[in-house]
Amino acid sequence: MDYRQKRKLTFLSIGLLFLLSGIEYAVILPTIWRYLQTLEAAPYFLGLALSAFSLSGLLSGPLFGHWSDRTGTTKKIILFANLFEIVGNFMYFMGFSKWLLLSSRLVAGIGAGAGSSIFGFLTRSTSPEDRATVFAAVMACRQAGLLIGPAFNIFLRLCDFQLGPFVVNKFTSPGLFMCLMWILLQLVVIFMYWDLPPLEKAKPKENSVSHNQEEESEQGVVEESDEEEKPLIGSQELAGSYGSVVVSPSSENHRCSVSSASLNHVSPHGQEAPESQEASSPFKNFSISREFLREEVVVLLAAQFITLFNQTALETMVTPMTQRYFGYGELENSVMYCLCGVEVIAGFLFVRWLSRRVAERVVLAIGLTICNISGVWCLIFLANPIGDFPWQLTEFIIGVFLQVLGLPFVAVAQVSLFSKVTSEKTQGFSQGVRRSVGGLATILGPLWAGGLTENMYIMMGVMMALLALLTLMLAFSYERLVAPAIEEHEDDSENCG
Fold this sequence. Notes:
single chain; mainly alpha; Growth Hormone, Chain: A; two-stranded antiparallel ribbon; 2 strands; globular
């Protein structure tokens, strides 16, 4: 099997994994509250169960990411993480007590931490100019899972039989169903997933070749790839940058940047360091403060936290609001979520197209502009809906539409930019930190909204203030939200000098 086929099958496996993560959320969320009620759980247990999944994912993400950075592999990490998903969902299916159900979500959440390793893998195996489109496609897969997940509930709610000592009903069947799905995914990963080499390993290793020979090598790689895809290796990778084209002022600087970007680094004593040593020590010169306390990184982490905080807070607020003002039940809410899912998928596809034509920071600015408009609209019209039923429904639809519309822009842009402004060698750990920040937001968002459903102005006012703060941060740091090619080139020159 050639490289192109392995690449396609590997990306397909990743898409299926994110699809299942969306389906799991969609089949468990609608029934978990009534499931807890059958186990005589107190109302606060719903918040605990929903937060448990995010909490364990928050803790496991950086660990899995660090593991992938140290080993340079992701396949065995995914297989290991999926075991937690299988066990966790089977525990959910057993459902002997409320504590077992709470534990099941904690265990399953550990498996979700493998996402950091996957994003690190995607960063290393895609060119910077194509990265946003790949991330958009992966995120769209999860949204597709959220969209089709409720359809499975139509069949799962009809389950009513005994399976040995276990009862299979509309509450326990989602756990059994997802357990089987994750087992099937294990087989997919075993037979269809490969640890593809990073882009640097695909380029010629001879540092003494001329520039024309390098171009010929690049053309050879292009011929092996799909005709519709862009070259996997561009001149920017050969220049040692993260994605911006760097023009070397002299042949000496060019050789220096090529040498520092290749895997066969030259030691200070003139001896080549072995690849295994380089791959096993990506954290040799790593500093958490230098990596994550830079201005552009702080802005992107803030974007991750604030957008997810607002999103989960609004998701928590929507159901009580539709019940209070419109008398919506499960069917109407399911239709609403389905339509939102269609809009989100369409948004990701549009962002995938747009990111090929404009810079990620432009996409981020567009998304934040839409989110600010949505925040103002919700603060004016949804905190205290005015008018009769048709006007209230119209105000609600516009507010939800704007909120959902802005999400794909912000989500894709901040993930893609984050992968470029952080070190590629420790990308798994960095993506784990980013996902942990998002996990913290998904824990705090529902808690914030759940406690203020009767004080909508306070709830939405704070959300709008966070958006305004993020917008100011973006405005002041806009010039820095690019791949740090210049700084990286200078560092390489100093190391060579």
